[in-house]
Amino acid sequence: MPAREVGVNGKTYAEAFAKFENEVLDVLDMRRSSEKFKSEVLARTVLWHPGGFFGVRYTSGDAAKRLPGVKVKRDHVHTRRKLVQRILAGHDLQEVFEQAGTMCYVTDEEHRRLSKFDKTHGGWDRYAAAGVVWCGLQRVSLPAPYERPAHQRPSLSPPPTRPASRERPSATDEGFP
Q1: pTM of the model
Q2: DSSP alpha helices (H): ranges in 33-174?
Q3: Per-domain residue ranges of the chain
Q4: Taking a C-beta distance cutoff of 8 angstroms, is the pair 169, 176 a contact?
Q5: Is it the case that residue 167 has pLDDT exceeding 70?
């Protein structure tokens, strides 16, 4: 099956990844912010975006049954806490982007069981430990890794830098009344 050119949010893989990468770098470049604050911003905002590209691709057996009265939630297979740790440790952003986009429908009861293993297990190992059986909703093949030219790749070793400021036109500039 050919790679998905456009995600469920209408963006191409390259557009979605570039947006994610820029947002991560913007957060990491917050000079006066603590690591805790940066972690919160990454977990509460930035790490939600990859799901908009990939959509939910997996479901647990119980969630797939869609029984009346059973609430179903979206679960990040790779917990946001661990993804934030990987970003702050300088891991490959493309790998983190794809892991952040891996979500699974689970029931409320399964979500509670999974939560018990958040700190001790990662990824699909957490599902195995919690006894949650999952399956794919559809076959999805990812595009070839998005490669930026070497001169455009950010380095996370030293803190990334951004231009000092982004000039905005003033009301007196040409084109403004």
Answers
A1: 0.65
A2: 35-44, 49-54, 61-65, 80-88, 93-100, 108-115, 124-130
A3: 13-152
A4: yes
A5: no
